[in-house]
Amino acid sequence: MFKQYIMILVFLFGDQFHAQENKVRASDSLIRKTYDYLFERIESTADIKNRQAFYLEYFLQKAKRERNSKEIVNGYKNYVHYTSDKFQLAYADSMILTARKSHDNELIGSSYLSKGIVYYSRKEHKNALDNYLIADNFISKTNDQYLIHKVKYHIASIKYFLGFYDEAISLLIECTDYFRKGNARAYLNSLHLLGLCQNRIGNYGLCSKINEKGIQEGIRLDNYEMKDYFIHSEGINQYFKNNYAEAIKKIKYSIPSINKNKDFGNVSVGYFYIGKSYWNLHKPEMALPYFIKVDRIFDTKGYIRPDLRQNYELLLKYYKSKKDLHKQLYYTDKLLKADSILDNKFIYLSGRVRKDYDTKVLLKDKLHIEILFKKRKYNDFIYIGIVVLFFLVVLFIAYRHIRNKNIYRQRFEELMAKNEADSKVEVKNVDRGIGNMNKDTVADILRQLEKFERDKKFLLKDLTSVKLAAVFNSNPKYLSNVIYKYRGKRFVKYIADLKIHYLIKLLKEDSKIRKYSNSALAEEVGFSSTKKFSQAFFAEVGCPTSYFIDELNKMSQENEVR
């Protein structure tokens, strides 16, 4: 059992012992290697992170062992170039601390320059400029022309960003003249930035010449790192020449390579000018996705510069045309945020930045949009409420219609099932009087009522209990009491129901009568008005006259078919 544990331990840790042994052997083999050799190994193992990490550490520890300040600074600088973004500034600070201990102006200036470059890559231009100026203070005390011109290049890049194009151009001309002799990448970088400056001051022809020269010089020097940047620059230049299709083509071609370099600033600028090109081609729907990409970079990286401000003005213009208050409010807030950042970065330049929207106007517009947005939301709420209410009313009406049709049908069938005898009022035997009336008086009134019904005297118009009582040689009170007792109805309903039952019999028997209008039917059975007739018919029959007649006609047609 003990042997098995030993075997497991050997299996688990054998590889680590072997790796450690190899590391020791590798370290032994590097003892006599130069710093140049180690730096070459760092660059050549960029794709093998664990190997590169070994050489980075060995380089720095070798320099520390040898107490070589210059190479210790270079060791930290290696880490700045090859470590993850979050550790870059920490290594840059270590580099500066080591350089300051050396009291070497060249070393101190170079360290501050490297830290400034880190800030510039993050688009933290104010911090970058602070470090460049400190670097210039130390480097200007030396005779190192490479560092002197390197500082000039980076200060020129800040001046370009801030809009001091003429001042940047004079520095860049010096840089191109110097770097042409022995530093291909720095020379091409200087040419590229010089072209951008010429574009910004309106020298579009000269910008095109510089971009073409940059590509050709890259071929001559066998350095293709800047090729896509020159194409990107020329794409933007073509936009200013109003060659929008060509601008879109060139910028789209260059963006994948620039994006691979994690250069979000130039990617954002590229997206913006693609969007503007589509916009000027009257294709706002195609421009919109690119403007949104610029906004996304602003969200994630906080990158904004004066010309990119128009990105939000165009987004506002687009959504205003669509009457989208929600998006107008969103991009108004974004424009205000961009202005705040720009004013902070360009305190001494803000007066020169052209704004189509003054901040006060923007705030006023924002307030107006918010009011409209709230009003629209309130109106939408009311509108939705009205729509829902209307839907419920329609639903209720439909339900009532279906329910009523079922009720009408049921009532119609009940009436059709009754025979004539059923429709007549039953004559009851008089066994006693009513109140003050003796039974003989009651019997007399009942006999007269039977004759009244039989002779259809109820068809007379404007018949009242007073008039009928006079005919019966009785009084209205006695007549009404007998009708209520033996017919079960008040006088008015009694007369109305007699008229309606008579009409139902007519409608069943005579198809011509069915063609009468309501007013004609009311006249036929002695109603004083069409309204009273319609009310009385519905109250007794349980459906409108039109429905009753329609059903009778359908029944007649069915009988004819049979």
UniProtKB/TrEMBL annotation:
Pfam families: HTH_18 (PF12833)
GO MF annotations in UniProt: DNA-binding transcription factor activity; sequence-specific DNA binding
PROSITE patterns: HTH_ARAC_FAMILY_2
SUPFAM superfamilies: TPR-like (SSF48452)
Domain of life of the organism encoding this protein: Bacteria
Keywords, comma-separated and alphabetical: Membrane, Transmembrane, Transmembrane helix
This protein's name: HTH araC/xylS-type domain-containing protein
Lineage: Bacteria, Pseudomonadati, Bacteroidota, Flavobacteriia, Flavobacteriales
